[in-house]
Amino acid sequence: MWLRDELLKSIWHAFTALDVDQRGKVSKSQLKVLSHSLCTVMKIPHDPVALEEHFKDDNKGPLSNQGYMPYLNRFILDKVQEEFDVMEFNKMCWTLCYKKNICTKHLLISDHEAFKVWCIFNFLSEDKYPLVIVTEEIEYFLRKLMEAMGSGLNEEKFADYKLQLNTKNNCLSAWELIELVGMGYFSKGMNCQTLSMGIMEVFQELILDVLKQGYMMKKGHKRKNWTERWFVLRPTSLSYYVCEDLVEKKGNIILDRTCCVESLPDKEGKKNLFIIKCIDKSFEISASDKKKKQEWLQAIQTCIQLLRLGLPSPHREARLRRREHRQRQQSEEDDLAERMKHLQAANENKQRQLEGMRKKMEEAAAKAAVEEHRRKQTQLDLQDRYRLDLEKEKMVRQQMEEQVAQKSSELEQYLLRVRELEDMYHRLEEALEDERQAKQDEEAVLKLQARLLEEETAKRAELEQIHLQQQRVLSQTEAEKQELVAEQLAKERALQAAMLQLERMERKRHGALEQYEEVSRKLERAANKTKTWKDKVAKHEGLVRLIQPGAKGPQRITNWGPASFTDAELELRKKSWQESKNQGAQAQ
């Protein structure tokens, strides 16, 4: 919708330029040329017969803007589908209109800069025809321009200029704005190059939607090398070029709602890194310093957030807010003017009412004078009567004071009795509270006794289960004893065979004796260091044992695995098991 409105503004300039007589009408032949040029630039198939068919009943001569608009909407603007070069479209409309309206020879700017100011005018102008730019948008544009030139807007000079605009309905046409900028009224003391660069920067920001641009290093996808590129950020893309003249474009990063930008730690000798993650690719970029990195991160994140919310570019959003603010302000001013009219009418009515009230007050004053004389006479009569009544009141007052003194003494006695009753009531409340507390303690004791009985019952059941388990364990231990006896006989036979093998190995032992003595000395030093830990491990009934050089004889196999115990340890465990068995039998 916004694109159609901006296209219509440029077309309106072209249509107005074709109106040589300034009667608001253009000939059909000129409209055919204009329509063909529009279709060519906007990549729309041109139908030369459509114009004749649309206006076949109009044989009265040239066509007005209102008559051309339905054809423009139906046969041109409604068919815009492919993307086309909007700048080429604007240049075509500018070429048709600028020579008939302004000459840039006496200005500080060239035709190219004037075209950029013309585009900025179309962007900031109101959506009403004839097109004008209001004071607020003029101030916004001039502030942007002065900031781009590294200066500030002269407030006093602009205030004087606003007074001059009052004679022009607080607005300017496109050609008046170009003349204002080209004459250098607000940029005195600056050369033409600075003014041209300032116009270029504002044009890129507002018209080309360039939110940020500058040099950064980019990591390649194939060779992984770092190359300096000139980056240009727009609301939907981040393009990068060989240099800032924007001639050789190297790539384009399309931004959408699925993209994200994140900071990266320094690596590969590069600092101030961040990454842009898209669906198909990720781009690693290095800024020149931390401040630039933060600015780029914030700018790219803002673009992605606007895309996720479905909002237009920041400048279009700001322009929309300014227009809404002006509309609200205009509505408030209209409401205020309407209220002022009502207040003025009400004020006139009040004046008429006050005049009538003044006449009534004069009549009332005459009546009040007669009433005042009568009142004074009556007041003298009342004073005599009040004097007599006052003497009677004094007598009655003395009697009342005596009665009050008597009642006061009775009241003091009554209050003393009330305080005694209150003390007694408080003592009774304390006694009742003590009694309630005693009952609560008694209930708590009863609950505790009941809980202890339940716990004792549970413990008794648990002890019975333990007794049954002990019996099962004793029977199991008897079976294990028989297995151990059989196993011991097998181990004795294995021991005899091992003794024969030991005799053969005795001869080999002498050769390894020196090595063994060296290992023994090292083992002794290690044993001294780990003595405390060894003592702790020994308490776990052989479940965990230190690995030490064992005897060369045959190893015993137990339920805990081969060589879990020595013969001495096994004998100790047999004695311990026998003692526990005897104690269990005695307990039964």
Automatic annotation (TrEMBL):
Subunit structure of this chain's protein: The SWAP complex consists of NPM1, NCL, PARP1 and SWAP70.
Function of the molecule: Phosphatidylinositol 3,4,5-trisphosphate-dependent guanine nucleotide exchange factor (GEF) which, independently of RAS, transduces signals from tyrosine kinase receptors to RAC. It also mediates signaling of membrane ruffling. Regulates the actin cytoskeleton as an effector or adapter protein in response to agonist stimulated phosphatidylinositol (3,4)-bisphosphate production and cell protrusion.
Name the UniProt record assigns to this protein: Switch-associated protein 70
Annotated source species: Perca flavescens
InterPro entries assigned to the protein according to its UniProt record, in alphabetical order: EF-hand-dom_pair, EF-hand_SWAP70_N, PH-like_dom_sf, PH_domain, PH_SWAP70
GO CC field: cytoplasm; lamellipodium; nucleus; plasma membrane
Cellular compartment(s): Cell membrane; Cell projection, Lamellipodium; Cytoplasm; Nucleus
SUPFAM superfamilies the UniProt entry points to: EF-hand (SSF47473), PH domain-like (SSF50729)
Basic and acidic residues bias spans: 327-337
Lineage: Eukaryota, Metazoa, Chordata, Craniata, Vertebrata
GO molecular function: DNA binding
Location of the PH domain: 209-305
A family per Pfam: EF-hand_SWAP70_N
PROSITE patterns: PH_DOMAIN
Keywords: Cell membrane, Cell projection, Coiled coil, Cytoplasm, DNA-binding, Membrane, Nucleus, Phosphoprotein
SMART domains xref list: PH
Region (Disordered), start-end ranges: 318-337
